[in-house]
Amino acid sequence: MDKKIALIILNWNQPQLTFDTLDSIFKCQSKGFSYHVFLVDNGSTDDSLNLFKAKYKKNLNVTILETGDNLGYAGGNNFGLKAALKEKFDYYLVANNDILVAPDFLQKLVDASLKHPKAILTPKIYFAPGFEFHQDRYTKNEIGKVIWAVGSQLDWNNIYGSNIGIDEVDHGQYDKIQPKIDFISGCCFLISHEILEKIGIFDEKFYLYMEDSDLSQRAVIAGYELRLVPESVIWHCNSGSSKPGSSLQDYFITRNRLLFGFRYANPRTKFALFRESIKFLFTGSSWRKRGVIDFYFGRFGKGSWK
After folding, report:
1. Which of 226, 247, 263, 284 could join 280 in a cystine, given CB atoms 3.0 to 4.6 angstroms apart?
2. How many degrees, rounded to 5, is the angle at CA 37 between CA 187 and CA 127?
3. Could you tell me if 176 and 262 lie in one domain?
């Protein structure tokens, strides 16, 4: 019997990006499996919903869901996952709405999952051409082969995440040696029904940032693997809309590093995080201060974010 895959795609005020992503996905090969798209509109304030309904109303392969409010990355994706879980798909693919995919990317992920049923899987993710952080570094032939992520790592002493291989040109260096992955980016991953039932969906306390680290850590603790599937390739149209040092990052990363660190880090790191948080109360930006205060007062989810 063919496997069934639910694709969760989250949109917030970016209908054209979402159209491009779905147009790319609909060209995918699907041998031995079928897939259905759960397109979640996360409380868009533009014309996204009307545009989606007009384009996909006759497409039986797309279910449009409306959250009614911006639930953040965690809550928005959970909205789609909850709907899909009721239908008991074999696999769930969570993917950003700003990716372009190779026609066989999903086939390669499904094939790998059959070999590694106890793993959450990530494709090899390149920067989409023109979206590289350092465009002047690369030759014309290297564009489209610049790595965005082949999995992600955590600096456990400071609780900061980074993408493995970022900015490197792909010469096959990650094709045979499986990198040590601490967490899989929410940009794109495939997870089985078994694993999702065991570890649960995203923790909506995080709202935005580090919810993928938390999900991955719960999987590792439960005895599952995090694996790169280098044969599966996608391109990320990384917009960098929330730049380092932005108010958005100041607030959510400050608060969520404390939330994640106090759950999973060793005592020494927890103490370092505590000391740093006290320092932020006196020297941090206004949003960092709010992030610290909200953590200690248990204000999670959207918290104090405007």
Report:
1. 284
2. 25
3. no
Q: What is the spatial distance between Cα 257 and Cα 160, in angstroms, rounded to a whole number?
A: 8
C-alpha distances in Å from residue 288, one per residue of 38, 217, 283, 292: 35, 25, 9, 6
- From CA 223, how far away is CA 241, in angstroms rounded? 35
Q: Which two tokens stand for residue 114?
A: 């059959």
Query: Are 225 and 273 found together in one domain?
Result: no
Residue 149 lies in a domain: yes
258 vs 209: CA distance, rounded Å: 12
Whether residues 39 and 65 share a domain: the answer is yes
The domain boundary, picked from 210, 236, 262, lies at 236
Name residue 183's beta-bridge partners: 152
The whole-angstrom separation of Cα 189 and Cα 187 is: 7
Residue range(s) defining the domain that contains residue 288: 247-296
pLDDT in tens, 130-157: 999 999 999 999 999 999 999 999 999 9
User: 146: which strand partners?
Assistant: 169
pLDDT value of residue 306: 85
Supply φ then ψ for residue 176, to 5 degrees.
-115, -25
- CATH assignment of the domain containing 121: 3.90.550.10
What angle, rounded to 10 degrees, do the helices at 267-283 and 247-264 form? Answer: 150
Q: Is position 306 within any domain?
A: no
Nearest of 206, 178, 189 to residue 299 by alpha carbon: 206
Tens-place pLDDT, residues 205-247: 999 999 999 999 999 999 999 999 999 999 999 875 455 669 9
Number of domains in the chain: 2
156 lies in the same domain as 290: no
- Closest alpha carbon to 18 in 80, 89, 82: 80
Average the pLDDT over 156-160 and give the result: 97
**Does a structural domain hold residue 39?**
yes
